[in-house]
Amino acid sequence: TFGFSHDRVRQAAYSLLEESKRKEFHKQAGVTLLAIHGPQPKNRILFEITNHLNQALDQIEEETLRNNLITLNYKTGLQAKSLGSYESSLQYLNSALNSLNQEVCIKDLEFYSNVVLETAETEYLLNNYERAVSLLGLLENLSISNLQYIRANMIRVRLYSKMNKVEKAVSAGLCAMKRCKIHIPHSRFKINLALLKELLLSLILSKGKSDFELVHLKENSEPEYQALIDLFADLGPSAFTYNQNLFALLVLKIFNTSLTKGVSRSSPIAYSGYGMIVNQILKDLNQGIRYFKIAMDLNKRIPFDLVKWKVQYVYSAYLCHWKKHIAPDIKLLDEVHKGVLRNGDILYAGFSLQAKIQKEIFASYPIEELLMHADFAERYFKTAKDNFAFMIAKSSHQLLKALAGKTSSPDSLNDSEFQMENFERKIIQDKNHTALFYYYHDLTKLHYFSGQFSKALFYGQKGEDLIQNAFGLVPFAEFWFYYGLTILATFEELPFFKRIIYSKKLNLIFSYFTKWSKNCPENFMGLLELLHAERERARRKISEATTSYEKAIKLFQEAGFVSFQALSSEIAARFHYKIGNFSLGNHYIQLAINFYSEWGASAKVADLKNRFAKRFNLTFSHETTQKKPNNQNTNLDQEIILKTYNVLSEGIVLDNLLKKLIQIAIETAGATRAIYFHLHNKNLTVYLTGQSGETEIIVENFPKIDETQYPISYLNYVFRTHRIISTRELDSSLIKDFTDQYIKEKNLNL
Predict the structure, then answer these.
(1) pLDDT at residue 629, as a whole number
(2) Given 19, 141, 542, 647, which residue has the most CB atoms within 10 angstroms?
(3) CATH architecture of the domain formed by 491-613
(4) Using CA atoms, how far apart are residues 424 and 218, in angstroms rounded to an integer?
């Protein structure tokens, strides 16, 4: 027998054998187990037989047994690979490959090709790219089958994508499709023409089909067809980066093929991709989400765990933030990352990690936490040799460092390990257009945050040319937001004809955010409101701009987006300083500092403190020196100023500030009633009233009171002359101007 009741007994007995006897023992054990379990052993027995015979390789002279061992090593390698034990798998597969001679290659080309393909794929999974490329080269001049050709090019697509050789990855994928009679044009014009044709065909083929019918189309499990659809799932990311119209064309081709020739295990990727296209081209978000659900149902019908997580990635990275608050997407991307890693899908593991960080940036995660996540992602990309995702994520990592004061200067991405010029040159050379878009997008943000609006506009223009590389993703919306702010910040300085051009772009931006805000106000309403505020500022509509700034801050507060609260407060401060309202300017700049500090943008905090340090020493007297009344109530005015300044420093929402201001005015003056008026379109509107009660001051918004309850003629005089006066300083020549009903009834001593 070859078994013992205890491992140590077996080890002791084994140690007593001489080296030559041990090999004989292993051979006898392997042959005996093979005879007992037959030529198709499985699981543990398969490993045991193969290990015994491998250790006795020098003792095996029988050709039949040596050939059997090659097959056993191949099968054991596949078994280990399916269990995720890639190092062990590679040992078995290399043993099989090294044992194959030229005669076997000629006699059984299919088996030889399969051994090469499995070994090459395992080398890829272990990040041994050069070895994988070398192995695939062994098949180039052989007459391999279509199935094996597709598989070889599928491996090339994956490894070239990870090596950031986007053009080579796309070329390998298109060659495989051409081999299978799926022809994709090369020129941009022909691609666009074919895209339109396939889009119309997709609408015709899917018209009238229910969700149930789309899920339960006939299944096509023919190996070559299945491999072709699998290839598309791997080609998609590189095609998206290389040319978005090419990507859309591929999606439509595979979608239409699935509808006409049958669905396979990877068809859910085509369905979810079609949802992306429908959302982007036809602007139909509901249909986009519908096709995601259909894709998940199809995956349940034809289970394939690898595809399940790819579909979830498409939904969480490209779709769900257009419909609901961004926070749940981040958790889902965490699950996707873990799921694809379990399946050995290194490519999508990188994508999910990168997409997660972009959403965390939008959701205003603390910068220190973001830097920890970005550092982890960078280490993962380097370990996995995923240069593709590394290059896409890198500029955003540097932007976070700049905001935290960890680059050479607040307006630069450079540090000891990163040089902007070299980075840009590399991604242009590699034709990684997605990474190039992110780079220009991050520079637009950086220079906007730094107050260098001309530079921000320069990089915004470059980013606009590449914006399709982000369609469907959160940075697509984020780019248009910062680009819109940049245009509005520079609008007054632009030449006349450029204003016309940029006005059209602003109209496009506002149309985007108006639609997105209707679908998902939690994510986009605050962005729209801040853009509105800046447009009203550019139009010199002070009242409307003031209100919109406050609304934006409040909306960002409700959404939990502290970074956008900080940005809104800073922009509002600049606005109020410019129009001479230094008190509110101080209030908003202090808010901005507090919010930036909470977010962790220490470089911004330092910048604002340096730029506005002198402002914090100002009091309201600076604003009122030119229109100062008599000095009778100096102490009273100073008390009001002091209390008001403290309130402004603490408050956030304008309504709350005004309510507190009215309460302070009543308390300090010993009055029983106070009214706050708002001038809108040159018309006076009663905005708030405060009434002293028995225990507290009651403040009411938009109260219904008629003109007999306040001195309308006096108020009109103040707004007409811009002169704030006390009734005590009126001379007799002015008395005739104040003869309204309120003054007569109150019998005021003028």
Answers:
(1) 43
(2) 647
(3) Alpha Horseshoe (1.25)
(4) 48
